[in-house]
């Protein structure tokens, strides 16, 4: 990407997430305690791997940085687990929602509007840096990972979820938008999955991105979108889409589509 386009893309990404903070459609217009609790319940039911990956319960007393907190569901889990947790997000509206969530749950928060590509923290500060589904939205994910590595203490662990290529979600977006417009699978995701410019990575590309870390492990899992488990968004409300949701062969997909999951759960340590 030309460097002149990067600030513009970052503004578009910020504006996208300010307009619809991640998961806010599940709040159905309310943001009281019960709505946030319902959001968390549905999140951890649809994505049971999050708790295993994040390991919230082992974070008591640790300095944790969450990059891209969105509406703060995971951030609140760090606080509940007794971590000394700091969170950032590019979107001020998301940070406001996450702060409100913490207040309603009775926790003090340490949340800031900040850019993952230029973190406002000293080097060697955190035991854990966690970022779930965030860096692929930023114009320069490699820079996000360099920053994550910089702020980790030596021996500290990064736990990062990035989108995978190829994926069933990507294939569905390609069938919906790409095939008619001659777009590649990757371009269909770039243009149509969440904020503009969303990137996807093969496992080999992730290993390259993570080359500053030691002991890198990558696990691939399905997203709720790969299995059409989530409620269809406003774009997919027609009778035809409702039929697709109904007839989707989830059992077969679970059995044979494993290598096409959208989520890569990545761990690596700072030397
Ligand atoms: C898909 S949401 C994920 C939010 C949260 N981690 C979750 O799982 O619900 C992506 C989030 O990344 C944030 N984001 C995108 N680019 C960012 C950047 N450069 N720095 C910080 N946050 C960023 C967006 O504002 C948005 O809240």
Structural class: alpha/beta
Number of domains: 1
Shape: globular
The first-to-last residue Cα distance is: 31 Å
In CATH terms, what is the architecture? 3-Layer(aba) Sandwich
Number of helices: 11
CATH topology: Rossmann fold
CATH class: Alpha Beta
> Strand order across the biggest sheet?
3-2-1-4-5-7-6
Taking the sheet with the most strands, its summary is: 7 strands, mixed
Write the H/E string, N to C: HHHEHEHEEHEHHHEHHE
Tell me, rounded to a whole number, the average pLDDT. 93
Describe the model.
The protein has helices at 5-19, 33-46, 49-54, 73-80, 92-105, 141-151, 168-181, 185-192, 203-209, 239-247, 250-256; strands at 63-67, 84-89, 111-113, 126-132, 152-163, 214-221, 263-269. It has a single domain (5-170, 197-226, 261-269), classed as Vaccinia Virus protein VP39 (Rossmann fold, 3-Layer(aba) Sandwich), CATH 3.40.50. Helix 4 links the parallel strand 1 (63-67) and strand 2. The protein is 42% helix and 18% strand. The longest helix has 15 residues, at 5-19. With 271 residues, the protein is an alpha/beta fold. The chain has a seven-stranded mixed β-sheet with strand order 3-2-1-4-5-7-6, sandwiched between helices. It is globular and about 50 Å long. Helix 7 (168-181) packs across helix 8. The structure holds S-adenosylmethionine. S-adenosylmethionine is lined by residues 13, 17, 22-23, 67-70, 88-91, 94, 115-117, 132-134, 137-138, 194.
């Amino acid at each position: 990407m030309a460097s002149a386009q990067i600030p513009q893309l970052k503004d578009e990404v910020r504006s996208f997430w300010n307009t619809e903070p991640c998961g806010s459609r599940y709040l159905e217009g309310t943001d009281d305690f019960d709505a946030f609790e319902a959001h968390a319940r549905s999140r951890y039911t649809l994505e049971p791997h999050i708790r295993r990956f994040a390991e919230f319960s082992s974070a008591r007393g640790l300095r944790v940085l969450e990059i891209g907190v969105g509406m703060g569901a995971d951030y609140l889990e760090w606080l509940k687990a007794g971590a000394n947790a700091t969170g950032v997000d590019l979107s001020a509206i998301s940070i406001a929602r996450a702060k409100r969530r913490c207040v309603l749950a009775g926790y003090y928060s340490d949340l800031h509007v900040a850019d993952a590509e230029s973190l406002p923290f000293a080097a060697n500060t955190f035991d854990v840096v966690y970022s779930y589904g965030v860096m692929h939205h930023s114009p320069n994910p490699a820079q996000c990972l360099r920053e994550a590595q910089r702020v980790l203490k030596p021996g500290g662990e990064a736990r990062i979820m990035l989108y995978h290529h190829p994926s069933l979600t990507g294939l569905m977006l390609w069938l919906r938008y790409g095939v008619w417009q001659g777009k590649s699978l990757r371009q269909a995701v770039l243009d149509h999955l969440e904020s503009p410019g969303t990137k996807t990575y093969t496992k080999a590309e992730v290993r390259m991105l993570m080359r500053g870390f030691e002991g890198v492990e990558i696990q691939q899992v399905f997203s709720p979108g790969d299995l059409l488990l989530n409620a269809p968004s406003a774009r997919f409300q027609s009778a035809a889409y409702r039929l697709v949701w109904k007839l989707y062969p989830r059992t077969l997909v679970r059995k044979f589509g494993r290598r096409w999951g959208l989520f890569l759960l990545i761990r690596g340590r700072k030397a």
